[in-house]
Structure formats: C-alpha cells, structure tokens
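Q: Hi! Curious about what NodB homology domain-containing protein looks like structurally. Here's the sequence.
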Amino acid sequence: MTAGAGVAAAGAAGAAGVFLWGEDDKPVRAAAPAAGAPARSLPLKPSAYRLQPLTGYGPPRAAPGRTPVRHEPLLRMTGRGRTMVLTFDDGPDPRYTPGILDTLAHYDVRAMFFVCGEMAADNQELLGRMADEGHIVGNHTWSHPLLTRLTRRRIRSEMSRTSDVIEEGYGERPRWFRAPYGAWNRDAFQLGAELGMEPLAWTVDTLDWTTPGTGSIVDRVEKGAAPGVVVLSHDAGGDRSQSVRALGEYLPRLLDSGYHITLPHRRYT
Ligand SMILES: [Zn+2]
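A: Let's find out. The predicted structure is below.
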C-alpha cells in the first residue's frame, strides 16, 4: 500500500478550512458549518499558500512577545522537505487522547493538541503528559462556541479562561489558537494576538468527526500528504475510536514514505 505521499501536492491546500476575507473584512463566505465541520473553502490565491511566519521547524521558543494581528489564519507551513504537522482538536478526552499519545510516543513523534478549556479543566494530567512528551497545546476556546455569534467580551472570556487552565496543567500559556469550526472574525484575531497566540487553521481535514470509517480517515491523510501540510483530526467531541485507530495506520506509513512529522515554530516571539 502506498502512503499516498506526494500524490496531492497541489490539492491539499485547497481543502483548507479558512474564510477568505473581502475588502471590508467580512467573510466572503460566512455560512456557519455544521458542528465540527470546517466550511469548504473557495480556491485560495497562490499567495495565501505561502504564509511567511511558519518558516522554521522545531520546538516553540519560550519567551512570549508581540504577536501580529492577522486577517486570516495560517493554513500550512512553508519550508523545504517532506514535513507535516498533525493536530488534534476538542480534547483532552481520557477515552481517546491517551491512545493518540501512546501512538505518537511509540513513533517518537510530536503533535499539536488544540484543547477546550472545559475538557482541559477535568483532565489536567493529560495536559501534563503532553508537556512531558514534547507536544504543543493550543487554545480552542472554553466551550467550543461559534465565535462569530459572540460578543467581544464573551470571546475574550472563552479564550482567556482556556489559556489560564492550559497554563495550570501544561506549565505555560498557549501560543497558538484555533477557532471552533474554523470560524474566525476580527475580534478573534485581535483578542488572540493580545493573548500572544497565532491563529492556526489546517490544510487537510480528515473529516473524522463524521465517523466515516478508519480507512476513510487514513485515505484522506494519505491523499492529502504533501510538504507543509497541517492535518486536522479530533481526540474528543464524540466517539473518536476511528481517529485513534487511523493514526496508528497512517503515521507509520507517512514516516516510511519519508515524511518528518514536526511542530511549527513562530517567527514572532
Ligand atoms: Zn473543534
């Protein structure tokens, strides 16, 4: 079985769940996606693929500093080589997250976990394990609301409470933010930057939240595999046993086909 590596070098970016912004900063396509579903994007301009800040790979730097206010989230990494980032959203969930962490540890791979505050508060030991094992924990709001329907005050509360609970369990404040449903607005970008977080979306959506079958999740990752791709999966929010099993299948195949699974690092610290 081929790992699909390199098959979809061009196609992967088109699957990114990101809003495109018009002249007046209103989303070009603002329809709210179904729960967990990032909206399908319009074709992106080539320039949108080449977002500059994610130029390097490696562990995040420690010192927080000024974070730029963006108008769209980052979708992928730039750089050379067959390098990909794996991300897991909505957890941590003691039913599924440990299995994902076990597989990552088995292959000595680091990933990103965009956690929800209300899940993190109940599962602080899993945040501690993520820290111990070198993963990045990002902020995915407290209760997973559609931010575009909230007041600025509510958005701030959703974000800052989550950063607080991450700091408790993980040991440092998150430096990455991902909006639920991929639904960003100006407040989300501004408040995220105020809290020192860069907005990270994704390139390839496994659609694992639809429980399409383990094989289907594996296929989506392998078909979408390409340099710089950021993969979206979930470790909570429903029955994620397919997501856990799929990781055990696609991860060794990605590694066998020469992919290096890594973490983004920020140019602006
Ligand atoms: Zn989510």
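A: A fun detail: The first strand starts at residue 56 and ends at 57.
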